[in-house]
Amino acid sequence: MHRKKTMIWGVAILASVSAAVATAQHRFRYHDETETRPINLVPATVDPGTNQSEIKETASKLRLTGNGIPDHLVGQFPNRGNPHSISTQNVKLNIPANPKSTGSRTPLQMGWNFGVSLTGVTFDPLAAEFWHGDQRSGWSYNALGGAIALGLDANYAHVQPTGKYHYHGVPTGLIELHDWSPVKHSPLIGYAADGYPIYAMTGVIDGQVIQMTSSYRLKSGNRPGGNQPDGRYDGTFNEDYAYVQGSGTLDQCNGAFTVSAEYPSGTYAYFLTEDYPVIPRCFAGTPDKSFRFGRQ
Fold first, then answer.
1. pLDDT tens across 208-255, in order?
2. In angstroms, what CA-CA distances link 204 with 112, 182, 257?
3. 169-190 pLDDT per residue, tens
4. Rounded to an integer, what distance in angstroms lies between the CA atom of residue 98 and that of residue 57?
5. Please, which residues have CB within 8 angstroms of residue 228's CB and are 6 or more apart in sequence?
6. Centroid of chain to Cα 111
7. C-alpha 79: how far from chain center
8. What is the pairing mode between strands 267-272 and 255-258?
9. Distance of CA 29 to the CA centre of its chain
10. 56 vs 94: CA distance, rounded Å
11. Could you tell me which of 174, 183, 221, 175 has the C-alpha nearest to residue 202?
């Protein structure tokens, strides 16, 4: 009988420990900042190591594998805003080879990468930082708003606790290596989780090279206050912005139809932009589940 009670208490303690660990994994840092600040980018002067990446194509998908190490210089990690070190990753992503629009928009959810560069570094625009540390508040901090120090380097990238280096903005070092120029169509820099290509800032519309611009605008006035953030809508939070159809060249997902060297007959594509959201926040197609990485 004593042995049975011991076993029962052991199971109960194990369950309590498991619950505590699960709770800790889902706890976010407390923040009450409500104003944007300049971002102090860490200079990209460090060689992160050797990039290993490969893309194999089948009839239905592109299979991208790699070690997650970029092929350009990065900032110093750890740094004051980011305590983590870059480490190799086991990147295995399936990219739909024949993407199709669903006719609706699928929002990018926390725990998903939006896309991946050709060299195997992911685009992950969402920061796991919320008003009062509560995801249920409905107020998520804009990673490029500067209110929360994230230790971003000159590629607008930093490192997760897992050692995963990832982009929150336009990856300067990456596009320079691909010979990006403002007077020609952007080179292909990656693929979104739904299979559509990702370009940076310039595209061809009606035969003309143009700067691709976001259709998101800051809301006017002030935030609600009370048990929600106060202050004016200034870009501190993602919720400070609203999509205004036709105010830019791109749609709600920062996408447009373009003609490029890779797609001479034209294709729907996503564009990184200088202004918010910079990296798209929704999908026109169906994202592959391999791009889901869980809450980190």
1. 999 999 999 999 999 999 999 999 999 999 999 999 999 999 999 999
2. 29, 12, 9
3. 999 999 999 999 999 999 999 9
4. 11
5. 131, 137, 138, 139
6. 10
7. 20
8. antiparallel
9. 19
10. 10
11. 183
